[in-house]
């Protein structure tokens, strides 16, 4: 595990930034392939990848700063954009990234639900690679295992600063692996008939479910909200519920539209 790959003069090239940039580039490539396969909108994917990728990074950082670490950053405003210190919340990244994507689609008259379905596997693929960046940076770490097994982080990482030489659960590794499992499930789902918008709803449901249970192993931001669950778990419950409602509503609407189309067709004459 190396936080710093090499130096250019006094400037460190961090593994975190390199892998995070790679995750955006490769996720955009996956999105381009899926759009090309779908037969539409592939000429917009690169622009979407740039806008949504950058806004996603900003949203992830600001969500962490204002919802988790404001007590610290309110007195250290110049460090708000120091992402290498740790502190990126995927919830904020997805929300702002999707919001910017919707605005882009509206401006270019792109079917929003269709593009969201195309983008869903690419987003979770990027998230999986992003967890590799977290591992290399020593953030998004797990809680102490209480035994002799687990990850012991280098002394330069936030994980070591928090727990010292205690072995920690590999929470970010397992989340990254589950992200790739969700990626495969979404590809399989897209191969079968479904209503427009359901692939993105399924992505939200699967990720929220995985994140909810993995939060029990996390060692950062583990304080419960109202004595119940962590803030990330509360967000996961909300996201899963809303996505499930959308999934069911889209299915019902699709069934009604199909029934209406079949009854509105004129009978053929012999």
TrEMBL record:
Keyword Ion transport: no
GO annotation terms (biological process): lipoprotein biosynthetic process
E.C. code: 2.5.1.145
Residues where a 1,2-diacyl-sn-glycero-3-phospho-(1'-sn-glycerol) binds: 131
Main location, first listed in the record: membrane
InterPro entries: Lgt
Membrane topology label: Multi-pass membrane protein
Pathway: Protein modification; lipoprotein biosynthesis (diacylglyceryl transfer)
GO molecular function, one term: phosphatidylglycerol-prolipoprotein diacylglyceryl transferase activity
Matching Pfam families: LGT (PF01790)
Domain of life of the native organism: Bacteria
Transmembrane segments: 15-33, 45-63, 83-105, 199-217, 229-250
One of the record's GO cellular component terms: plasma membrane
Tagged with keyword Transferase: yes
UniProt-annotated location(s): Cell membrane
Family per record: Belongs to the Lgt family.
Role according to the record: Catalyzes the transfer of the diacylglyceryl group from phosphatidylglycerol to the sulfhydryl group of the N-terminal cysteine of a prolipoprotein, the first step in the formation of mature lipoproteins.
HAMAP family, per the entry: Lgt
NCBIfam families attached to this UniProt entry: lgt
PANTHER family documented for this protein: PHOSPHATIDYLGLYCEROL--PROLIPOPROTEIN DIACYLGLYCERYL TRANSFERASE, PROLIPOPROTEIN DIACYLGLYCERYL TRANSFERASE
Name of the featured protein: Phosphatidylglycerol--prolipoprotein diacylglyceryl transferase
Organism (species): Anaerovibrio lipolyticus
